[in-house]
Amino acid sequence: MELEELSVAEKAAMLSGGSEWDSRGNERAGIPSFVMSDGPHGVRRQLGEGDHLGLGASKPATCFPTAGTVANSWDPALAEEMGEALGKEAHDLDVNVLLGPGLNIKRNPLCGRNFEYYSEDPIVAGRMAAGLIRGIQSNGVSACPKHFAVNSQELRRQASNSVIDERTMREIYLTGFEIAVREAAPLTIMTSYNEVNGVYAHENKHLLQDILRDEWGFDGMVVSDWGGSNSAVAAVKAGGSLEMPSPGYTSVRELEGAVKAGTLSEADLSARAAEVAKIARLTRTEGVGRNDLLKDDIAAAHHAVARKVAEGSIVLLKNDAVAPAAGTAADTAAANSTAPVLPLKPGTRVAVVGDMAKTPRFQGSGSSKVNATREENILNELQRAATATETGITVTGYAQGYDRQGAANQSLIDEAVALAAAQETDAVIAVIGLDERSESEGLDRSTMAIPQAQNDLVDALTATGKPVIVVLVAGSPVELPWFESVAAMLYVGLSGQAGASATVRALTGQVNPSGHLAETWPLTYADCPSSGWYPAIGRDAIYREGPFVGYRYYETAGVPVRFPFGYGLSYSTFTYTGLTADETGVQFTVTNDSDVSGATVAQLYVAGPSRTELGTGETAGVLRPTRELKGFVKVELDAHESKTVRIDFDRYTFRHFDTETNRWAIESGVWTLAVGADAEHLPLTTPFAVAGDVDAAPADPALGHYLDGDVKHVTDAEMAVLFGREVIAPGKPTVFGVNDPISSWVDSRGFAARTVARTLTSREAKTRQKTGSPDLNTLFILNMPPRAMSKMTQGMVDSAMVDAIVKIANGHTFRGLGGLIAGFFRNQSANKRTAKELNHD
After folding, report:
1. Which one of 165, 225, 444, 678 is the catalytic residue?
2. Which domains are delineated in the chain?
3. Among this protein's residues, is 225 annotated catalytic?
4. How does residue 48 score in pLDDT terms, banded at 50, 70 and 90?
5. What is the pTM of this model?
6. Which residues contact 128 (CB under 8 A, 6 or more apart)?
7. Closest by alpha carbon to 365, among 636, 39, 124?
8. Strand, coil or helix: what is 673?
9. How far apart are CA 198 and CA 730, in angstroms?
10. Contact 255, 176 (CB under 8 A)
11. What pLDDT band is residue 96 in, cutting at 50, 70 and 90?
């Protein structure tokens, strides 16, 4: 039987999940169900029905570095190799659709889920995601880039409205997805929880039809985030294919009723069903569904891949020259010389300090958390390296150094200082960073600082006079008040299950660090462009800063930073020479001036006519940042080798989105092209005449502070010019609706609802304090609007019951309870009738 021959109800049934992770198939049409599974850096194949946040048991799988770490490699080919391994494991674990990668823009460093996202820049995010997608799908498994779109905070994530101007949305927040779709052709894409300019992403026709399908040519399946569907009918009209996890038969009845009433065309219903059927037929897996990858050689091979990815993603942030310690081999060779402290010289005696050196943290919390096949720790790997003749180092001891949960403990510091100050210690390796509570789905960070107990430890260690080498474990930027005092610093991010051995190989020189930061590190959180309005605590998250995100802000507004976008050191040194440009791209030479083989990331930035001085001293052209990344390439060079490097122009190089004509345009005029190793250090520049399709014209002076990137002082009137409309954030609701989060019930007039919200809030805080990890399920409930209950209960709750629950939230407790009880029995009867209809009884 063909799909077209199915009944309306049967086609409608295919558009929602049959369980937490499975689609609904149709035996009559020969359409099998398929399995979806997290995640972006490791397969989280849950045992049984499980839960959607990863708290239940899952099958062992390789935990690769997270996206925020992999992005620091600036190496799409490396991401593709990782994707091939991910896709292989997904296939062998009977997973048809792997839910990743995440490529939302890092708008603010406090977003709790930033470790799952690549970059603040859409070119880096898009190219890295495209590599991973190609690798995953080479196994016959669908990748599923997410969360589409404009998703930047975890607070109220299911009940937030991202308010953004069209040009910023297109150029910054959608371009990464566009690159991934055009270059890697993902079979599936996942929508975000939030509304975009007042319309839920999963039912946003502008996003799903106008842009994703019509403009980019996407022809795959659009799946909602789990519980992220609002109206099944509106979603089908707009281009949303599948709502997950499991609304039972509620959505089936809603869709069937809409077709009968003439408010939904059967053609739209059939189109969506065909998209779901396509995934079912294209992603057949024949895996063994094994419970333990450790028994298979693939586990060892993929552990090696995870190590390779971690090695390519480590960023050397500092490496001062210090005199060798007396009595070491290095001292004997050159008594009065100084040399960078890293790599560790043969004979160096190191003390290892830090709880994370012994108890590793290599991934974030939430739905992406993987049951790793193996675990390593830096202490053991250093001790193992100490026995290897090629390193010649000695580990003099270990001290915990700090309480992992941040409690002050002077005795731990004293123990670490005694070890560091001991005569037999030449240098200290301090492993510090963010704990498990700090970076999690469902919870934004409250500060950019690391725990004060760790800052106190580093200060005490540097006071000993011994060189301190910091190994930083974190998925996002942190403030570094002691940075000037330490001798060296390696940023390893959240480096996956093989991150410890990769780190030690970098410390000892077996690997030359080649990572570059894929996001700017500000000096303090107050310097961030959106620090004054992030996260939005109300319904509307207003993207007041416009296009000035990350380096686009810091470079334009002239704000000093700790590390610029694209920054990364090496044990090698490189020079750039000979920049030329032609109609199709730029060419230049990179030379390794050192005696050590290494790699660097060559980056191309452009500045449009509005940032190019004219003869009159005036500027022309649309509003732009000072410079924008438009291409990059990782260049590997032997000692003293030179290579000619070329970066081609593409559709993204010179374009901007013209909101007046609703199209992409290119300004004619003199542009500036610049090449270098990060956004601040660009030794090569050249003017370049661009023959575009619009003439450069002066930017609207009414944009005011936006013209200089001074977004912290933008007025409401200036924002209205950028947005093309007045933007006013609403106040607190006086009456709760189906889309207000349960956390907002703390202000309810009803005792029952108020008690529920306050109890859940208190429980989550106590659990986090007691266990050191966030209570993800409670956080999910607090962020959840009542309407999600009808999408996640396998049909036990329908929309009428949700309305009754909202009555309780508005203080009408008994009326709401009565409606809830009556609705329960009515819904059960309706489910039985629908099941009978679908089973053709």
Report:
1. 225
2. 3-282 (3.20.20.300), 306-516 (3.40.50.1700), 572-699 (2.60.40.10), 742-838 (no CATH)
3. yes
4. low
5. 0.94
6. 67, 70, 71, 74, 76, 79, 101, 103, 118, 119
7. 39
8. strand
9. 12
10. no
11. very high
